[in-house]
Design goal:
The protein has about 80 residues and is an all-alpha fold. It contains 2 helices and no strands. It is about 85% helix and about 0% strand. It has helices at about 5-25, 35-75. The longest helix has about 40 residues, at about 35-75. It has one domain.
Length: about 80
């Protein structure tokens, strides 16, 4: 058995604890202004709504093109 074995676990524990403390120290600042948070939520909601509207319009155009391509063959 190695003589360094009993010391590796405390070293690993100290290293992981130190890394967690560094992560905690580098965390982003908490936003104190609730208006900023609600404005961000509202903006993201608007972006999601616009993305959904664009996807719906694109799907509608695709469906119309597909329908017309099948109808032209019949006529």
């Amino acid at each position: 058995m190695s003589t360094t074995f009993p010391f590796t676990i405390p070293r690993r524990l100290a290293l992981s604890t130190g890394l967690k403390l560094i992560e905690w120290a580098r965390r982003p600042e908490a936003t104190a202004d609730p208006m900023t948070v609600s404005a961000n939520v509202r903006r993201l909601s608007d972006l999601r709504r616009l993305a959904h509207a664009e996807a719906t319009a694109e799907q509608r155009e695709h469906d119309v093109d597909r329908y017309l391509s099948e109808v032209r063959q019949i006529l």
